[in-house]
């Protein structure tokens, strides 16, 4: 993964003048670096659907990782929980099948190594496909036990039951990039939780695998987070926590405690696990963080980084570089300083390596504790308080029994109670505030491992490193720590100089600080008017606007009328008012102060005009036109005459329309009658019911002869 150009160096450290020795390390990200990946999965019942997707992970992940490296191996392990109450149910039936209903689950176990690291993806699919879900009682799982065993069971023999060696086949970590993927949907138990099950013996950090099962889960407590960090770092294992959204916050906090670790969001059924692993690997491999072995007493080390794109870092930031691509080279300057000489003058060794990788630099330290000028010293020199020492290399080396910068005190005086009294503060029993030694009645303050951290003061009561911090920096990086109190740079205040006096962030859109409705405190608006809120106090859900808000007060003060006429002096004295003759005399928008032009109606339905503004002293200023514009009253007679005339005209128009319609209707009826008359046909035959009024009768005797 990383190419290291310097592997061993020798430094000569001069103690007398504390001269730092500096050397450089260069790192370059290598291509096609071998990778070992061990997939550690929670097999409690809630991960049932996840197991189905992981069964085909081997070949699929092999295919994806071939794009990164040609030498990739994968292994698999699983965990559930300690096999004691109250973590699992210990009834015989539940030990055989801890799941409820018709679910067929395997016997609970703490940790099982299913597959050693192998390059056979099909073998991974085959063995993982044969796994079964198990179950437990509580929500947190025993994942820390599993992580510990994965970290320490990589090589060599396995220690079983404390001292009995067992030749179990190990996980098989190689001396390459080592990734541990920890997959779960629950929290974790840690050191101390074992007491619930009567387990009080601390975890010993050793391998206890028997037949690929963790055999001492009932004997040793869970490991602590610090213990895990130590073992993961010792074995150069980088951890990827693949957890569900619900536990993201928990594992992100854990990530901050474990160097070279990453957290990814696991979908509900682990369908995105391959992409999660690829993304986490790219994130981890693009960052290098240097760590060193324990420093010898009196030796300090400082780092300075020269990273990509001209990004440099010092202090703790000087230990790392980020966003490094394949082929990129970064440089570190490392300074080592000896503040005192080791006992017996023996040489020391420091090892420096990048976290998560096995490459390291070994530094051999050889101390120079005496200078050549010591051979030219003047014994019993008068410069050393009446000859009580040897003056050499510009300083006094005191004779036995004498002490002090100029050998002015005897060791008897140093230990006397009277001398100690000069080194105690008033009403205090602490000598030199416990931060120094009393020598000849004067405090000589201790030196700290970090030479930039200094005790000072007559009684060593002051220091420059115990001031309040903000964002992890002393005085927030915006001040100087003097005697445990921050002296802030200009434009900053507060106990940790974390309060900016810059009001730019408080400026509202109208140019006022906090919209004139609050105070700017540490670059943030504190709205004093409860109706207003937001970053600049401009948001108001119930406000009527500037004009409507001040209308009543302007009306009562300018014209002595309105709703606030009776309480005007009490409620409306908060602004300065000026009367002007006309609207043209009102202030115009080109003035420096923010301005609002208002037009409102008074109680008499007259319009009055005013402006509202706030000056640089945050004082409201109101200008009012002294004469309202009232509309003239209506002329009644023309209105009445017009209304009457209108009614008459409308009546006449309606009559004319009615008359016209009647004429049209009559004409249509007459025309219809004439048409029907013309079309009528009269029958000339005799009426069958007609009876003539004339009757003819014949006398039967008419025409007979007279003789008869």
List keywords for this structure.
single chain; Rossmann fold; 13 helices; 6-stranded mixed sheet; flat; disordered N terminus
Compact summary:
Keywords: Calcium, Cell adhesion, Cell junction, Cell membrane, Cell projection, Disulfide bond, EGF-like domain, Glycoprotein, Integrin, Magnesium, Membrane, Metal-binding, Myogenesis, Phosphoprotein, Receptor, Repeat, Signal, Transmembrane, Transmembrane helix. By secondary structure, the chain is α+β, with helices and mostly antiparallel strands.
Which structural class fits the helix and strand makeup? alpha+beta
Question: CATH superfamily of one domain, please?
Answer: von Willebrand factor, type A domain
CATH architecture of one domain: 3-Layer(aba) Sandwich
Just give the CATH class of one domain. Alpha Beta
Radius of gyration: 51 Å
The fold-level CATH name of one domain is Rossmann fold
Number of helices: 13
Query: How large a portion of the residues is in β-strands, by DSSP E?
Result: 25-35%
Shape: flat
Provide the helix percentage.
Answer: 10-25%
